[in-house]
Amino acid sequence: DGGITQSPKYLFRKEGQNVTLSCEQNLNHDAMYWYRQDPGQGLRLIYYSQIVNDFQKGDIAEGYSVSREKKESFPLTVTSAQKNPTAFYLCASSKRTGQTGELFFGEGSRLTVL
Amino acid sequence: GIQVEQSPPDLILQEGANSTLRCNFSDSVNNLQWFHQNPWGQLINLFYIPSGTKQNGRLSATTVATERYSLLYISSSQTTDSGVYFCAVVGGGSNYKLTFGKGTLLTVNP
Q1: Do B45 and A100 make contact, defined as CB atoms within 8 angstroms?
Q2: Which of 2-61 (A) contact B at CB < 8 A?
Q3: Segments of chain A with pLDDT less than 70
Q4: What gap in Å lies between CA B110 and CA A7, rounded to an integer?
Q5: Which of A104, B14, B32, B88 has the smallest CB count inside 10 Å?
């Protein structure tokens, strides 16, 4: 089935460790996005990518890094520089960029820093 | 940037009741989507509706872009409708960023 797969669903990490969240899509979508959600809040954009080997910062990119080496994959690394990394992370994709493209989301990854 | 306000923030219904959720936005939009976030956190696409009216079963949505608002109607609510409903828009000045409202938490009691 076509869709967006995020892994792991739950992740625990100690302070000072980097962690990478996986996002894979088989929808043949051009654009991919990472959002962060904190309790009781809406989603905020971390990074987005419109094409392979290109990506741009969103509103809250500090402490995060991404890569887009393949059309299907857009991994997010939460670095030790991110001061409040505990959150719910959602990956999304769209056929075109957000201006006219409908976004579809994965099931999310819940990161807890101990 | 564009502002998105949703109301009410919380809504409690008895099963079978109807409801209307509202989304106001501060500027012209190129894209507007309604999502339902289930208890496990997944965002389910309900409508892609930058303008006009759409219906899908018990749910329907209307966006009046000239007046900068959208409405989501839920009829004959069921307990499975519980969760958070988000409105998200791409403002006219942006080509990528979907800006979310803070959501409406709907609880449907049996």
Answers
A1: no
A2: 31, 33, 37, 40-45, 48, 50, 56, 58-59
A3: 1-2, 97-100
A4: 34
A5: B14
